[in-house]
Inverse folding.
């Protein structure tokens, strides 16, 4: 990059000293102020400056370099992304043939819960750790009314907020004159399908261990979300005086049997409480860890997914999915990013070439161009 | 100078309105004139100066009131209130905080400034002065001076109030003052003590004076004062003497070269002329302000349309019942019942208040910068002293039609002027001597010892220095010296002259009829030693010729005209002998007029008119006024930049014309159109003739020229250049014709002709006509930006009239101007460099603000399509608030203060593309697993980096400040994000940003996406730069052309 380092010369219109009248601003309460600016480098615009000159000669190599950096990155991302195994299954049950079609119109409190089983086959084995997601479509978790309908201080274990939740939680703030814990639309609509995964081999179903811890952000689990404090660790007692969210079958202190995953610090709950950016989203549900180095986490083969179908989405034309995915250094499957990098890199490179040609051609030919009119 | 009265607002907090009318009576030294007279004490205000605006008590309400009178502030206040009252997507803090910030900063700044003013006031008010009481000096604080006190002022002290000059340490009763801090004129002015009190130059003597002064009530004009002093001596008739501005010592002026003076206070405190002049700062609106308003309006329109679109779409979307209220997201009871105010407008408008402050800072930078610069289209300039040096040189003279000229060695080009020059005795000896005596006597030049005074025009060979308000006079006196007549000075009303025979002649100076621009001549009445009474008069030919014997004119006129053609300033000299009787009458009339308190000017003018009649023409002089260095280049540069330069002068047409040629206002190829008394004629048919001429020119310039194709600038370069010359009398004929019907018609045609001409010369202009012309041009269609340059009092009117007024430094005009420059050539730099820079900066500033705010709201807008038009904010409230205050404001501020690049700007073009890509990319590649706040943070990060780096790309002039603010802003953003997300803030209702930023950065794909998106966003910009540089290189030969064209663009 051509560089030109210069200190601006003293402007000839500004003699260094103040003129005879310049400094004579005496008397009169500043009535007659000298209007001459101070003779400082800043005020006289004489700060030394670096003046980069972006010319074709300096920018075009930059184009090449950018192209050369971006294309390998893009290829790397693309290959990595392609190596990621991902399997997605829609279990909403819209199609009459789907096993879950019978559960399509369940309501929140249907007892016994509707269950269905979907069989599927994995063509390729999933080598590394597998993440199990549930995905919802056309679910506006980012609706303004929805996003703000929570009380973070209640979720942080504040006892006064527990019994007197924020107004933002309306209309899910109180039920039958009792405060709802956790209050608000987000909590109220928590995803409550249960998914279980079985490996089917010779008609025997082997349950695959799904780990439910470690799916939420560490900071959320340990700092942002806290159970209310009080005497003892009995959550039932701590949540005394509150009532469960309207749509929940059981109160918050019965979400899980393990005490460190119960109440507000239940990880499924925490994950749900992080509202999604777009109406089609996926949320981490479970982890499947690789057991041994010899065997892949999920072998290729037949699997069946047992669903306890509690969550109604048909009423708002929604969809439910279950996604299995491995991850890499760059996260989940994302072919677009790689393609974008390759495209941008190629365009850069291509433009660099084209411009270089134009630059050379015109630069040499047109030096003797006629002066117009 | 009557403009002050109308153009300014005066503070009137002392002396009630009714007292202003009429006169005031001041009793000198508070000694009642006689016991019999009832001593009615008039109440005058004390000598305290109050320039501060606030007191401790009224600061808060007054300052807030003033701040909220600004549209932008008020607008944000309203929004803030709406947010407080109505349920809106964002908290009131979002708009409240920037508002609070700006208001606080401004209040602190104004408070500090006012504190400084208080301090300065105190300094002035508490300074010590000496007052004579009971024949003793008493030291007092300045603010305690009362009207009527006798004040003693020593050399180099500033006068504490307006004083009537009674006596000075010098015996002739004069003193020198400099008024540099009043009107910027740094030369020394002589003031005269009241004639009868000059002897009272000790404390005791001055205390014995019993007198009253009657004078007008205070008025702001520094150069006007009428009053009368009546002195009572025991057993004698009271003596009355007239008082004029030469007897008045103004507060703020400084005593120089005089040991001490005594004066009696007549105006004190806020009634001094200085204080009365203090308030007025011309209220010229700047392009900056206009463009900000335009920007705000456009921005508002965009927001409103955005809000409308969103609201419409929202209802469309909600018409689907499962969209409107799905089971998981029910409305509250209140929401169902009330129609919700669409708060969308509000949250997107996040503070562009700060914009105005940046512009203000920028403004302060270019002096006081209330006024715009770049797009000046018309430049009006004075000739004498502005285009030319106004340092005169005597060239030649003619006596009775015979030419006298120095023998200048043509070869060397310099004159050999040792001793009296040879001249050719063509005219009668007596006439010559008369002429030279006239030159020696008819002036107001004074002699000072060279070492006494500095900063004046020194005479190289003689240790005496001539000082005069007019350089012409000095040139004439020096000219006379060359021919053997030396002016030796004025002693006790006697003018001493050394003639060719080295004899000293004495003339008693009886009266000086001072020069004024209306009369355009001055006269003296002297008595020779032999008792003859002579009146010498010199002045412009137009004002002398009608007053002399007609048969004498012809031979001199030839010379005058020829000299004028050569660009010299010509003056004619005439004389007349007065009989004692005539003189007595004149003397009486003059004294009467001088005594008059009312209409003194008119009365004086009438006496002058009567006196200066029936004279005999002796000859004429020619004085050269050299062109200022580089004025020709400057005019060419201004022309090349597409500005039209008009010269408005009071000079003769021929003189002005040759100057115009010399400074290349007119080129040899320029076709001149004349609308002067010469072509129009003096006959009664002149109106018809004028009509014909106008029609003819109009036809030539407008109708015959084929409609220019393409841009205007092209038509200029292609077609013939026209120059127009018009003189004062013709102008008044055009502007005020006798038949009213055609008046506007003439004016219109004239204006059209003028606008077609590249250069216009208006000669023989009265000061008001100058202003008239500026006003006329200013009010044409498209209201072009006008600029006036001038130096003298006669230019003040046009300087005040034009959008941009420029005065010459240290001259009278500077006081009334927006900018002051020392020389005409600096105009080039001012207009083309500073003006251009200013324009580049402002243009970029406004564009950039537009750009960054649009960048800011566009993702927000697009997000609405994904969140059911529910007005969910994409960014966290803190980001929303900080975006304009902290993250992106400083780089543009530094840019607008420091940029000196010349690159064109192109910001908005790529904006839409970029944001769409932005969006598509993001929603495609990252989002499904991110929460909405993470997503918003990613968008915001890309936004901040893009917007800042874009500015970095545009910056051509990197000082350390640019580096600091650009990289500093980005670093601050990152730091702030960590900080903001790192703590559970107890005062927040929602902890939505908790660890969002940090978590975002743990994802590699987010990094990759952010880098890619920033690059894509900036790619069009980079590409544009490269293309431009290629283009520039390929058109290197055309570069010069382009350079000019760029200026053309600017001037539109």
């Amino acid at each position: 990059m051509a560089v030109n380092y210069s200190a601006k010369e003293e402007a000839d219109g500004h003699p260094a000293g103040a003129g005879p009248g310049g400094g004579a601003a005496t008397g009169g309460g500043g009535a007659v102020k000298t209007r001459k600016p101070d003779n400082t480098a800043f005020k006289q615009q004489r700060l030394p400056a670096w003046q980069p000159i972006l010319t074709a000669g300096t920018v075009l190599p930059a184009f090449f370099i950018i192209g050369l950096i971006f294309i390998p990155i893009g290829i790397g991302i693309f290959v990595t992304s392609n190596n990621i195994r991902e399997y997605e299954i829609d279990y909403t049950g819209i199609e009459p043939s789907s096993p879950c079609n019978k559960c399509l119109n369940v309501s929140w409190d249907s007892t016994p819960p509707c269950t269905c089983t979907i069989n599927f086959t994995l063509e390729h084995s999933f080598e590394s750790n597998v993440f199990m997601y549930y995905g919802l479509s056309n679910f506006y978790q980012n609706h303004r009314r929805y996003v703000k309908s929570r009380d973070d201080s209640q979720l942080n274990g504040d006892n006064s907020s527990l019994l007197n939740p924020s107004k933002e939680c309306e209309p899910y703030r109180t039920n039958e004159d009792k405060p709802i814990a956790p209050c608000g639309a987000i909590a109220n609509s928590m995803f409550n399908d249960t998914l279980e995964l079985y490996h089917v081999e010779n008609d025997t179903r082997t349950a695959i261990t799904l780990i439910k811890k470690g799916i939420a952000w560490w900071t959320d689990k340990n700092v942002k979300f806290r159970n209310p404090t009080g005497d003892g660790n009995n959550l039932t007692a701590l949540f005394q005086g509150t009532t469960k969210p309207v749509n929940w079958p059981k109160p918050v202190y019965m979400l899980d049997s393990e005490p460190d995953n119960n109440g507000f610090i239940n990880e499924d709950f925490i994950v749900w409480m992080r509202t999604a950016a777009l109406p089609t989203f996926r949320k981490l549900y479970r982890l499947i860890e690789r057991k041994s180095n010899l065997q892949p986490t999920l072998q290729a083969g037949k699997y069946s997914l047992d669903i306890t179908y509690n969550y109604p989405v048909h009423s708002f034309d929604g969809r439910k999915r279950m996604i299995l995915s491995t991850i890499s250094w760059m996260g989940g499957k994302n072919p677009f990013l790689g393609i974008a990098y390759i495209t941008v890199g190629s365009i850069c490179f291509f433009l660099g070439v084209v411009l270089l040609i134009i630059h050379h051609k015109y630069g040499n030919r047109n030096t003797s161009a006629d002066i117009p009119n | 100078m009557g403009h002050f009265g109308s153009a300014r607002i005066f503070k009137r907090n002392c002396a009630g309105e009714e007292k202003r009318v009429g006169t005031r009576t001041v009793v000198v030294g508070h000694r009642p004139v006689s016991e019999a007279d009832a001593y009615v004490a008039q109440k005058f205000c004390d000598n305290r100066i109050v320039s501060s605006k606030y007191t401790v008590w009224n600061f808060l309400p007054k300052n807030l009131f003033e701040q909220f009178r600004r549209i932008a502030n008020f607008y944000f206040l309203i929004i803030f209130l709406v947010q407080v009252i109505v349920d809106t997507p964002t908290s009131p803090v979002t708009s409240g905080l920037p508002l609070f910030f700006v208001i606080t900063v401004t209040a602190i700044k104004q408070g500090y400034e006012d504190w400084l003013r208080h301090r300065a006031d105190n300094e002035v008010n508490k300074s010590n002065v000496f007052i004579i009481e009971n024949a003793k000096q008493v030291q007092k604080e300045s603010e305690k001076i009362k009207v009527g006190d006798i004040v003693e002022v020593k050399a180099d002290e500033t006068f504490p109030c307006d004083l009537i000059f009674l006596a000075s340490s010098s015996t002739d009763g004069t003193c020198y003052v400099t008024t540099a801090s009043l009107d910027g004129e740094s030369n020394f002015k002589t003031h005269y003590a009241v004639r009868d009190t000059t002897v009272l130059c000790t404390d005791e003597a001055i205390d014995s004076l019993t007198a009253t002064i009657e004078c007008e009530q205070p008025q702001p004009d520094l150069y006007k004062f009428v009053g009368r002093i009546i002195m009572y001596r025991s057993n004698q008739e009271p003596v009355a003497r007239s008082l004029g501005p030469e007897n008045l010592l103004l507060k703020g002026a400084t005593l120089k070269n005089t040991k001490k003076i005594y004066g009696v206070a007549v105006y004190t405190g806020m009634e001094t002329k200085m204080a009365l002049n203090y308030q007025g700062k011309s209220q010229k609106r700047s392009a900056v302000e206009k463009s900000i308003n335009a920007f705000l309006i456009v921005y508002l329109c965009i927001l409103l349309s955005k809000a409308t679109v969103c609201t419409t779409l929202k209802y469309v979307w909600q018409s689907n019942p499962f969209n409107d209220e799905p089971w998981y997201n029910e409305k509250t009871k209140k929401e169902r019942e009330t129609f919700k105010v669409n708060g969308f407008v509000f949250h997107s408008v996040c503070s562009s208040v700060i914009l105005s402050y940046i512009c203000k800072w920028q403004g302060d930078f270019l002096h006081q910068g209330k006024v715009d610069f770049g797009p000046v289209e018309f430049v009006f300039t004075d000739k004498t002293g502005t285009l030319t040096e106004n340092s005169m040189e005597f060239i030649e003279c003619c006596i009775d039609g015979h030419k006298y000229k120095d023998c200048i060695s043509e070869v060397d080009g310099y004159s050999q002027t040792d001793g009296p020059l040879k001249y050719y005795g063509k005219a009668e000896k007596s006439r010559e001597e008369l002429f030279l005596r006239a030159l020696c006597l008819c002036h107001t030049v004074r002699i000072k010892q060279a070492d006494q005074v500095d900063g004046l025009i020194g005479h190289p060979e003689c240790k005496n220095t001539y000082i005069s308000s007019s350089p012409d006079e000095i040139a004439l006196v020096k000219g006379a010296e060359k021919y053997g007549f030396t002016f030796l000075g004025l002693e006790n009303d006697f003018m001493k002259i050394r003639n060719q025979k080295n004899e000293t002649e004495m003339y008693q100076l009886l009266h000086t009829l001072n020069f004024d621009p209306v009369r355009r001549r001055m006269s003296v009445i002297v008595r020779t030693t032999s008792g003859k009474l002579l009146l010498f008069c010199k002045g412009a030919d137009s004002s002398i010729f009608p007053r002399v014997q007609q048969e004498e004119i012809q031979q001199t006129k030839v010379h005058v005209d020829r000299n004028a053609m050569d660009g010299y300033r010509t003056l004619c000299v005439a004389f007349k002998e007065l009989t004692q009787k005539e003189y007595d009458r004149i003397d009486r009339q003059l004294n009467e007029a001088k005594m008059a308190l009312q209409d003194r000017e008119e009365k004086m003018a009438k006496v002058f008119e009567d006196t200066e009649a029936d004279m005999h023409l002796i000859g004429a002089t020619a004085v050269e006024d050299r062109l200022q260095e580089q004025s020709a280049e400057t005019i060419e540069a201004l022309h090349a930049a597409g500005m039209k330069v008009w010269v408005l002068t009071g000079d003769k047409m021929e003189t002005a014309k040759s100057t115009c040629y010399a400074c290349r206002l007119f080129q040899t190829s320029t076709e001149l159109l004349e609308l002067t008394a010469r072509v129009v004629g003096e006959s009664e048919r002149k109106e018809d003739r004028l009509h014909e001429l106008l029609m003819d020119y109009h036809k030539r310039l407008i109708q015959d020229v084929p409609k220019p194709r393409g841009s205007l600038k092209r038509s200029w370069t292609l077609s013939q250049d026209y120059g127009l010359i018009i003189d004062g009398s013709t102008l008044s004929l055009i502007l005020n014709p006798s038949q009213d019907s055609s008046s506007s018609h003439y004016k219109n045609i004239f204006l059209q002709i003028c606008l077609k001409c590249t250069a216009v010369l208006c000669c023989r202009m009265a000061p008001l006509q100058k202003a008239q012309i500026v006003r006329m041009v200013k009010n044409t269609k498209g209201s072009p930006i006008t600029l006036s340059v001038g130096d003298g009092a006669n230019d003040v009117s046009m300087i005040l009239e034009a959008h941009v007024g420029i005065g010459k430094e240290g001259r009278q005009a500077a006081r009334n101007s927006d900018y002051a420059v020392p020389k005409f050539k600096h105009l080039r730099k001012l207009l083309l460099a500073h003006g251009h820079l200013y324009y580049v900066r402002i243009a970029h500033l406004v564009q950039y603000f537009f750009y960054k705010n649009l960048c800011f709201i566009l993702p927000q807008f697009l997000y609405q399509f994904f969140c059911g038009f529910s007005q969910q904010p994409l960014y966290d409230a803190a980001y929303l608030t900080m975006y304009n205050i902290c993250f992106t404001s400083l780089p543009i501020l530094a840019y607008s203060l420091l940029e000196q690049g010349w690159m064109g700007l192109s910001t908005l073009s790529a904006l839409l593309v970029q944001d769409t890509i932005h969006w598509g990319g993001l929603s495609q590649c990252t989002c499904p697993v991110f929460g909405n706040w993470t997503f918003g943070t990613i968008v915001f990060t890309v936004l901040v980096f893009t917007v800042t780096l874009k500015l970095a790309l545009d910056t051509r002039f990197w000082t350390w400040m640019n580096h600091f603010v650009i990289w500093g802003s980005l670093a601050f953003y990152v730091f702030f994000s960590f900080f903001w997300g790192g703590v559970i803030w107890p005062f927040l209702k929602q902890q939505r940003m908790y660890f969002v930023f940090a978590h975002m950065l743990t994802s590699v794909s987010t990094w990759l996406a952010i880098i890619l998106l920033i690059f894509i966003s900036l790619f069009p910009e980079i590409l544009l730069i490269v293309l431009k540089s290629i283009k520039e290189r390929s058109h290197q030969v055309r570069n010069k052309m382009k350079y000019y064209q760029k200026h053309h663009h600017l001037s539109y």
Chain A touches chain B through 111 residues (CB under 8 Å). The first strand of chain A starts at residue 5 and ends at 6. The longest helix of chain A spans residues 335-365.
